[in-house]
Amino acid sequence: MQTRPSNEILERNTRIVHDLLNRQKIIENLAHQQSNRRQDLVDSLVHRQHLAELDQQLKRLHSADLGHVLETLPLDDRLRIWRIVMDKRGTEILLEVSDAVRNSMLGAMTETELRQLLAHMDSNDLLEIADDLPEALLAERLTQLSSEEKQRVQEALTYRENTVGSLMSIEMVQLQSSLTLEQAAQYLRAQKDLPENIDKLFIVNHRHHLVGILSLQNLVLGNPEQRLEDVMARDVVSFTAEDNAEQAALAFERYDLVSAPVVNQRGQLIGRLTVDAVMDFVREKSNEDVLNMAGINTEEDLFASIWSSARNRLTWLIVNLFTTFIAAHIIGLYEDTISHLVILAALMPIVASVGGNTGNQTTALIIRALSQGQIQQDKTAYMYRKEIGVSTVNGLILGTIVAVFTIVVYGNVALAGVIAVAMLITLILAAILGLTIPIFLQKWGRDPALGSSVILTAATDSIGFFVFLGLATMLLIH
Amino acid sequence: MQTRPSNEILERNTRIVHDLLNRQKIIENLAHQQSNRRQDLVDSLVHRQHLAELDQQLKRLHSADLGHVLETLPLDDRLRIWRIVMDKRGTEILLEVSDAVRNSMLGAMTETELRQLLAHMDSNDLLEIADDLPEALLAERLTQLSSEEKQRVQEALTYRENTVGSLMSIEMVQLQSSLTLEQAAQYLRAQKDLPENIDKLFIVNHRHHLVGILSLQNLVLGNPEQRLEDVMARDVVSFTAEDNAEQAALAFERYDLVSAPVVNQRGQLIGRLTVDAVMDFVREKSNEDVLNMAGINTEEDLFASIWSSARNRLTWLIVNLFTTFIAAHIIGLYEDTISHLVILAALMPIVASVGGNTGNQTTALIIRALSQGQIQQDKTAYMYRKEIGVSTVNGLILGTIVAVFTIVVYGNVALAGVIAVAMLITLILAAILGLTIPIFLQKWGRDPALGSSVILTAATDSIGFFVFLGLATMLLIH
After folding, report:
1. Proportion of chain B above pLDDT 90, given as a percent
2. I need a surface site. Which of A74, A414, B166, B292 has the fewest CB within 10 A?
3. Minimal-distance CA residue of chain B relative to A392
4. Looking at beta carbons, which residues of chain A come within 8 Å of B296?
5. Alpha-carbon distance B123 to B102, whole Å?
6. ipTM, interface predicted TM-score of the complex
7. By 3-state DSSP, what share of chain A in percent is helix, strand and coil, each rounded to 5?
8. Neighbours of A121 (CB within 10 A)
9. Distance from CA of B225 to the nearest CA of A (A)
């Protein structure tokens, strides 16, 4: 009986595997250095003993934990472990790791190894990793399935990313509404292998149309002689395969669902969406938001090669670079002003930087609200009024602080006035842009987080420089 | 039978409530303008009819949906709806809305109304909203509970934020291990009110020590005459109330849990953690990460007053402002250089801005990895090598682009060399800082996301200006 927190154990196990790997590498290095000595035999014994110890340790790990360990290992170590466990637990482990890590592991396998691995997968497993498989191998494996199964997999593969169809499982229990509770329980007992996390039964009529659900709880509590159609709930939250997955996730959160039926346009049951798939999706999406805001396009394996990581991050850096050329051009327009009053060059980043931060605060709030469907169309006017109000208040406070700073350090009252006014104007414009950019991206069907921070900072920089230097030119240069 | 996607319906309902509210406001305005006319009576009838329609519409909404509607309404509209539904469904609705929105709703209630509301809450409901209640009222309500219940609530209230204890429910089913499956099912049937999302039974010995679990599925499938202790699973993922909630959430995701027992230090069962609470927590945390990175301290109600929003965002803006003073000071050191070559003022934000973005990419990746426990201590050296590698590659590429730009626009080859080298150095330093700041914040027991972007940008700005202007002074000014 394990009552200790599971994560302590996981952390210890992860550390043990890391340690074993490190020790093994030291031994291998030694063996390599001494390869022409008599010592060889002994070394190889020690080496083999270590491998056995590692093997033992890995056997003791739950597949989900092993998946976690693989995520925390650099590519070469990861593949070393993967080769040890591939044959026996390949399928389970592949289902536990992230897309990026799965890709790295599948990529290191030969065609023969892949073919062997696929041979042991059922249609639902195949479906889950299909995107990462070479097409030819997947097609080959599909021909070995029954035509019904093959059709189900092929249909499920057509659903686009971010739809319920791409998250759903095709494993499920469906029962005819005319059965009694006792018959339903008997049917369940007769199944060898029930899907995981089963909390409710999906009830269909003779044409496979979903007509209701019965929670396992009510199956236990109900009168065994009653028919399903008399006790089932008819008011069911269900989804279609084309439904937006983010919307479905919000519904899972709102109604505290554990599983929900997925139906086709005709109302026929075609799959099952479960809370574990939804939770993985929510986690992935929120990671994506954090990365996208910072200008990283796609999820990145922590231990990906330098080249692939560099490529993944370059796009938005180049966008960023070109936007700074605009800012540089704007500053260039005021070269004369700056050469008259060089201190302006020192002060101008203050306005731009605080402007960027103000805008980013607004953007972060809006992205969060958009992703949770909290902004109704008719409320955008309200949002603008509010954000302008907030930035006015903070612009006045920060403008005052920066003015006092300018007077104390540079003793220039006129300059202090200019920078305070520039701060206020820039902050208000930054708030407006902070709202407009994500809303605009969303209306254009883009992810509102993707690059919003890069675009925003570019705009607030240019605006900050322009407002500050423009005001200074008008008011300070005679 | 509802087979349409539930979110379409929710959106339509939300829109209807918004529309009804708008129409009602127009009527109220008219009534106000014409208040001294004979029209009054008719208007008030129309008004009352509208109120009835609104009432009808609200009655049809699931409490979770009503919670969503309340989240999407500005404060005055929100309170208008809240007053209508408060009496009948106050408790359920309070449990559905976010902390910030709940606070706004509780804050608008009189003491008498609050007292009435609390009178209808059971100990578990009380526990969930206890943090938002006036202490005196909570204490008063607690005295009305049985001493056992009171003790459980008071104990549960001592758990700090971000612990399993703060998320767990004290409602659960515990069964003695000596019972048979049939007796267990009978016991369940005898309960009026089972907790929601029940997927497994917690099995204890006579001293309330958790000894195993039995899934509802196995209760259905098993032989009714067997004893629980013979069929229960003894290898249980359990938590203690002091466990870190983020770690627990990761365990829920890894093992696809629906519920898990919570025990005290002595192994006695004290509560139950369910996937819906975990999912809400994951959503909340990921929102927090997005907001914290952008320099917003605490979750903000989208429709909070301008004053409270401004205050919530001011802290990090002031930190930001003071860090820009440092950057301004560094630029000030090179006033002479700038006055010799004013174009440096135009080019210096290029280096600083791209540096900031590079560092932010690294920070976003690390924050994500830290929150998922993917970085082992012994891998930090590896991470530094990799991030320095990535920033070197991108520094060379972006440095080349900016050099070409400088030659084409300003025809100055020496300046082009200076800015390219400054770009490379700044990007490498930015990557190092992008790793160091979140890791350092985490080691100090802070949230690695909190303000990391503000601190990082401040550092990269100063570094960018210093490297670029310093190199220019050494190499270009004679």
Report:
1. 28
2. A414
3. B310
4. 361, 364-365
5. 18
6. 0.82
7. 70, 5, 25
8. 17
9. 15
